[in-house]
Amino acid sequence: MVGTAPRNTGTEGVQGGVGVTALLVAAARAIETHRHDSLAQDAYAEHFVRAAPASADWPVRIQQVLDGDTNPLWGRFARYFGLRTGVLDDFLLKAAHAGSVRQIVLLGAGLDSRAYRLDWPPGCVVFEIDRDEVLTFKRTVLDGLSAAPKAARTTVPTDLRADWAGALADAGFDTRAPSVWLAEGLLFYLPAAAETRLIGTVSRLSAEGSALAYEVKLDKDLMEYRDSPLYTSTRHQIGIDLLDLFVHEPRPDSAADLEGLGWSASVHTPFDFTRLHGRGPLPEPNDALAGNRWVFANKTRP
Ligand SMILES: C[S@@+](CC[C@H](N)C(=O)[O-])C[C@H]1O[C@@H](n2cnc3c(N)ncnc32)[C@H](O)[C@@H]1O
């Protein structure tokens, strides 16, 4: 069983606390990779899952799941992560290939292997921000595979609840050049004030022409869905109580904040993309995904 570490102390690695959620997403990406109608390919994902004692016996193919696609965790929830991965892959690559964006910043990067698996244009640098312990685990696994990144890659071990802008600058980030930012599966683990600070910091560090995508949960009361199949199966099958890891506070309207900071933002449900791609989760009763929104923003004014 996992999930026994303190919920967000800032020191836990992938073995417990919020760090273990990075393994959950990696397992979902592994399953997605091996689907015949895959929405995203991540050949590294199953290596992370196998390397950590917390997840070594989790499935990495849907065929290893007794009830297959009807399993709420490894069926529907994993497909959600697969869809999210594919959509955000497209967003980042579009930003890098369309214009002059050459800096990619992954906030709460976890076991995101985009630096290794996406075809970046020449001259790109990927900054990965997460806790030291998570980044160290990731490096050990990737080194063991002799994996080579497809862009320059810099890790920035820091706590995103604190002031992280200095650490990013020290790592070589250039505020004069446009950038693309991603906060995938991160903001609901941060206090509301830290989210507002983070969005403000991203904006301050972003030159005109920059882009940002992030995920939020807009539920008024997260506990409303405590008995939903996604939460209960995640708790029962792998011992992760997501509701215990999320911060239960009224969330800020970060998309509105961005509009006031010179960005134009559009807010989507994941189901919009399910319909677009013809596969992925659709709404269901007592749905833990009901409040999830994916926000895409572009900085259009200085
Ligand atoms: C659900 S995982 C998502 C990882 C990655 N973005 C992905 O989608 O694969 C959440 C990640 O956020 C990181 N995280 C949570 N709170 C953090 C904090 N205060 N500072 C830095 N990283 C944090 C965790 O360590 C974990 O790797």
TrEMBL record:
Keywords: Methyltransferase, S-adenosyl-L-methionine, Transferase. One of its GO terms (biological process) is methylation. GO terms for molecular function: methyltransferase activity. The keyword Methyltransferase applies. SUPFAM superfamilies: S-adenosyl-L-methionine-dependent methyltransferases. InterPro entries: Ppm1/Ppm2/Tcmp, SAM-dependent_MTases_sf, SAM_mthyl_Trfase_ML2640-like. Pfam families: LCM (PF04072). Its EC number is 2.1.1.-. Exhibits S-adenosyl-L-methionine-dependent methyltransferase activity. NCBIfam families: mthyl_TIGR00027. Belongs to the UPF0677 family. This is S-adenosyl-L-methionine-dependent methyltransferase.
